[in-house]
Amino acid sequence: MSGDGRQRTTQHLVISPEGASVREVPESVGVRDHPGYFGVFTRAEVPGCWPNGTRVRKHAEDPGGDLTPLGSLGTVLGSMLHPTRGAGYFIEWDRSPRCAVFAGAWKLARA
């Protein structure tokens, strides 16, 4: 928190299945830039989520579609837990090396 009671945020390029955008991200989340990667992510491992390094396959998509095709393979870089949306993962898709993309857990299966 800042001295005036507001949560401190920083602007980051966030990449999700809907596309890339610059967003305000609370510093407390632990999402940050990593040298050599495009897009911000965390290397945190949420208890009960797949560990970093787990190989995954995209098996579901948003009703309107998204940018990562079904069947794509990737590697978990980190995980987060949202109080109402559940778990999600930062993925490095094989088709987009060194690019961190966030995906909801419901879209993923172990490869």
Give the CA-CA distance, first to last residue: 40 Å
How much beta, percentage-wise?
35-45%
Which runs of at least 5 residues are low in confidence (pLDDT < 50)? none
Element-by-element helix/strand order? EEEEEEE
The radius of gyration is 14 Å
Characterize the overall form.
Answer: globular
Average predicted confidence as pLDDT:
83
Helix content: under 10%
Provide a short characterization of the protein structure.
With 111 residues, this protein is mainly β. It is 0% helix and 41% strand.
Could you characterize the architecture of this molecule?
There is one protein chain. This protein has strands at residues 9-16, 19-26, 55-58, 73-82, 86-93, 100-104, 108-110. With 111 residues, the chain is an all-beta fold. The protein has a five-stranded antiparallel β-sheet with strand order 6-5-4-3-7, with no helix packed on it. Strands 1-2 form a two-stranded antiparallel ribbon. A hairpin with a 6-residue loop joins strand 5 (86-93) and strand 6 (100-104). The mean pLDDT is 83.
